[in-house]
């Protein structure tokens, strides 16, 4: 994939991290006519339909789909693998359920479940359509250096790139964020998550559901064909213990704790576990540098909003730059980066805090609290303008 011949490059923008967020940013900025280099450490494995489904999947909101369409990646995703979901259901005690359906707001669907790698591959394919976008992979930065009006990057493949703007889309442990000395606030949640791909007897469903328990939610996301992704949140020790089980023993444990609506005739295909961490960068920019996606924030994934927030960052950054370029103003100034930060910081904070409120209020077995939150779920199920508004918010509209 590496397309480098020149050892010394000058680019308007260098993006470190070619994951979903970095690749989307690269295309968006290339569409504005800027010269862009996208630097990624690892090339994603090419897609083939026979491959088993990856564990890392995302529930992509309608707003994210609109961005992916604008960037020219949506068709390629559809040509690989995805599944639309129309319903979203959540409950703790049986009989106190909140159900959302796309019909309630006259939409065709609420979003799609897609493997992260499929989204990344579709974006990489779209990158090839731009002469002003250079993908450099595999490569990492071995040294960052400040120069007049920009940043100089020394890559571990001996290339040197000078740029006006460095974009950190290099994930939760962002090297760019750390080099810039941007602090974070955050903590590790007591819970971990286990992702389990199962093969089901019945073909794909179109509802994603989640049952809250004091130990953490138990969720199902439909996957293409006779497949689904289960997410089991629990305390870290329990998840570590489950990880050591073979597929048959794990299936038995799932049958004991997952709600009855999960068809019992499933087979465990693959599983993996993830620590849950909340991190929020104290600011999103520095001189000639900006961060976005997981480099700027990681959120409790219980409502599957992580990459959707990242895509909102991408859309906001593109829109700020587009406006500046239209007005023939400089697009790399701190003033403009501050505008980007202002457009995203509070929204990201709000979503993170909402997830934490859910996490805290459901991680408690006190009876009065349990009755209160279950009554709230029942009330929330009544069709009302507020419910429709919540649904639109979940869709990113
Ligand atoms: C258990 C779990 C379930 C989740 N479920 C959902 C969901 O349903 N919906 C949702 O929206 N989100 C979900 N998320 C969150 C989502 O996966 C992340 O928000 C998303 O992957 C962030 O994308 P990103 O591109 O910002 O970062 P990443 O995906 O981390 O990509 C960063 C990229 O940068 C590269 N990189 C890193 N460092 C360097 C370097 N120094 N040099 C070169 N390259 C580098 C990496 O190789 C990688 O390709 C979930 C997360 C977890 C943990």
Task: Walk me through the structure.
- The chain is of the alpha+beta class and 397 residues long.
- 35% of the residues lie in helices and 30% in strands.
- It has 11 helices and 19 strands.
- The chain has helices at 20-31, 62-70, 74-79, 116-127, 175-179, 236-243, 247-257, 306-326, 334-362, 367-380, 385-394; strands at residues 8-16, 36-39, 57-61, 83-85, 87-91, 97-101, 111-115, 133-136, 141-147, 150-155, 160-168, 184-199, 207-211, 218-223, 227-235, 267-281, 285-286, 289-291, 297-298.
- Strands 1, 2, 8, 9, 10, 11, 17 and 18 form an 8-stranded mixed beta sheet that branches.
- Strand 5 (87-91) and strand 6 form a beta hairpin.
- Helix 1 (20-31) packs parallel to helix 4, helix 1 runs parallel beside helix 8 and helix 8 (306-326) runs antiparallel to helix 9.
- The chain starts with 7 loop residues before the first strand and ends with a helix.
- The structure holds flavin-adenine dinucleotide (FAD).
- Flavin-adenine dinucleotide (FAD) is lined by residues 16-22, 39-42, 58-59, 116, 140-141, 169-171, 175, 193, 195, 274, 293-294, 301, 304-308, 310.
- Flavin-adenine dinucleotide binds at residues 16-22, 39-42, 58-59, 116, 140-141, 169-171, 175, 193, 195, 274, 293-294, 301, 304-308, 310.
Biggest pleated sheet: 8 strands, mixed
Number of strands: 19
Provide the structure class.
Answer: alpha+beta
Could you give the order of the helices and strands? EHEEHHEEEEHEEEEHEEEEHHEEEEHHHH
* % residues in beta strands: 25-35%
Shape: globular
Estimated helix fraction: 25-40%
Instruction: Give the helix tally.
Output: 11
Cα-atom radius of gyration:
22 Å
């Amino acid at each position: 994939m590496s397309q480098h011949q020149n050892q010394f490059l000058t680019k308007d923008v260098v993006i470190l991290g070619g994951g979903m967020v970095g690749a989307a940013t690269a295309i968006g900025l290339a569409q504005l006519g800027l010269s862009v280099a996208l630097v990624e450490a690892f090339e994603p494995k090419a897609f083939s339909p026979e491959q088993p489904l990856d564990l890392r999947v995302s529930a992509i909101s309608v707003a994210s789909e609109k961005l992916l369409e604008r960037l020219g990646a949506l068709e390629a995703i559809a040509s690989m693998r995805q599944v639309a979901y129309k319903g979203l259901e959540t409950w703790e005690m049986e009989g106190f359920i909140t159900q959302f359906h796309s019909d309630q707001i006259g939409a065709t669907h609420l979003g799609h479940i897609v493997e992260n790698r499929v989204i990344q591959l579709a974006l990489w394919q779209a990158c090839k359509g731009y002469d002003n976008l250079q993908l450099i992979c595999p490569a990492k930065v071995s040294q960052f250096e400040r120069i007049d009006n920009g940043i100089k990057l020394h890559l571990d493949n001996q290339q040197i790139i000078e740029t006006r703007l460095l974009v950190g889309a290099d994930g939760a442990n962002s090297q760019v964020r750390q080099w810039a000395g941007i602090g974070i606030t955050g903590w590790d949640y007591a819970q971990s998550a286990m992702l389990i791909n199962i093969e089901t007897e019945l073909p794909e469903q179109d509802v994603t559901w989640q049952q809250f328990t004091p130990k953490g939610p138990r969720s199902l996301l439909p996957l293409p064909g006779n497949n689904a992704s289960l997410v089991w949140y629990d305390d870290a020790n329990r998840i570590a213990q489950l990880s050591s089980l073979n597929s048959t023993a794990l299936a038995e444990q799932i049958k004991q704790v997952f709600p009855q609506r999960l068809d019992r005739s499933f087979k465990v295909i693959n599983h993996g576990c993830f620590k849950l961490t909340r991190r929020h960068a104290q600011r999103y920019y520095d001189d000639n540098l900006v961060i976005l996606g997981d480099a700027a924030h990681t959120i409790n994934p219980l409502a599957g909003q992580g990459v959707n927030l990242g895509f909102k960052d991408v859309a906001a950054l593109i829109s700020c730059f587009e406006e500046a370029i239209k007005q023939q103003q400089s697009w790399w100034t701190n003033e403009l980066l501050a505008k980007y930060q202002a457009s995203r910081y509070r929204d990201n904070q709000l979503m993170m805090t909402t997830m934490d409120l859910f996490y805290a209020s459901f991680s408690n077995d006190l009876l009065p609290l349990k009755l209160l939150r279950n009554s709230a779920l029942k009330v929330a199920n009544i069709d009302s303008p507020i419910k429709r508004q919540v649904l639109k918010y979940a869709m990113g509209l």
